[in-house]
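F.,

This is the one I mentioned.
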């Protein structure tokens, strides 16, 4: 979990990256398009003890990412 970055954009696009220490760079992790929000993302939070990200959006959904 310490090496993951979740980026959410107002366009409702979510991008998940993992930091690769050998490359010393972020590596994009593809997520399924149908799992993404349909409207602007309004919040992102992290639950590090559970290895989860939580996102909320104007589409009315809260999504949990593992």
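My design for it:
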């Amino acid at each position: 979990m310490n090496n993951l970055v979740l980026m959410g954009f107002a366009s409702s696009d979510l991008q998940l990256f993992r930091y690769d220490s050998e490359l010393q760079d972020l590596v994009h992790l593809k997520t399924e398009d149908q799992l993404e929000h349909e409207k602007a993302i309004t919040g992102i939070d992290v639950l590090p003890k559970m290895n989860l990200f939580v996102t909320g959006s104007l589409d009315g959904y809260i999504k949990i990412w593992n």
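Residues 53 and 65 are 5 Å apart (CA to CA).

Talk soon.
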